[in-house]
Amino acid sequence: MKGGTTMVDDIFERGSKGSSDFFTGNVWVKMLVTDENGVFNTQVYNVVFEPGARTHWHSHPGGQILIVTRGKGFYQERGKPARILKKGDVVEIPPNVVHWHGAAPDEELVHIGISTQVHLGPAEWLGSVTEEEYRKATEGK
């Protein structure tokens, strides 16, 4: 604490506000590696989720890796129980696995996202995680 406010150690600025076409709640995305020239076949981005904010259901044709840098959140594959995420966790998401990830109801989540094999195409977005799905995934955890 300094001067009555909490100091947050942000490595990256918040970036651009995420679209409601892909997110529920307030989310900011800062692209770190766009790989526009196709040199690395990878995109890297920092994502900040306010409490309760989350992605919609989606999949990546080339897979995705998440590295949690702050806060608490959840990761869930369709048809499986949600997994709690905390600082230092790494999630390896195979190609074409339908999933969502986002913040806990009462705590912010920040992660680095890495989309791999981007030459296979962009993420496929499949609609929002309903309030009921989110509640069932996060309640009591």
From TrEMBL:
Segments forming domain Cupin type-2: 47-110
SUPFAM superfamilies the UniProt entry points to: RmlC-like cupins
CDD domains hit by this protein: cupin_HNL-like (cd02233)
PANTHER family referenced in this protein's UniProt entry, alphabetically: BLL4564 PROTEIN, RIBD C-TERMINAL DOMAIN CONTAINING PROTEIN
Protein's name in the database: Cupin 2, conserved barrel domain protein
Source organism of the structure: Thermotoga neapolitana (strain ATCC 49049 / DSM 4359 / NBRC 107923 / NS-E)
